[in-house]
Amino acid sequence: MVKVVNSSFGKRLRRLRKNAGLSQYELAGQIGFRSEKSIRRLEGGVYLPTVETRVRLATVFGITVDDLMGGDVLTGTAEVVRRLKPYVIAHIATIGRKTQELQDQILSLRLRPVWDSHNRHQIEVLQNELEGNVRYIAKVWGDLKELGGG
Prior knowledge:
- The protein has helices spanning 7-19, 24-30, 37-43, 51-61, 65-68, 77-110, 117-146, and strands at residues 2-3, 47-48.
- By secondary structure, the chain is an all-alpha fold.
- α2 crosses α3 and α6 runs antiparallel to α7 (117-146).
- The two termini are 26 Å apart.
C-alpha cells in the first residue's frame, strides 16, 4: 500500500463494501488480507491500494479498476498485467491441478465393477465441472494474452 491521504477513495471503498453487504473482515478475506486492519486503513484514506489489491477489489465488486479508483488510476494496463501475471499463472495452475483431480475421480468411477445411475450422475457432474475448468483456463489465459502478458 502507498501511504497517502485520500479520503475520496476510502469513502468510495466503504460505500462499495457496504452496498455489497460485506464486513471489513469478510472483504479482507476475499482479497487475501490477513485481517480487516488493512481495510480500515484503506477506508480511512490513510493508504491507497497496490495494483494487485486494486484488481482484487474491483473483481470482488464487479467493477473496473478505473471505476474503483474514481477515474484516477495511477498505473496503466501494461503495469497491471506485468504485476498480476505470476498470480494469474499460479491461479491457472491451481485450476489445472483441480482439473487433474476431476479426471482421476472420473476414471475411478468408470473402473468400478458395479455401474448404476448414481455413478453415471456423478460422472456427468464431474465432467461438467471439468469442462467448466478447461473453458475458464482458456478464457483467463486468452484475456492475459490479449492484454499483452502472455
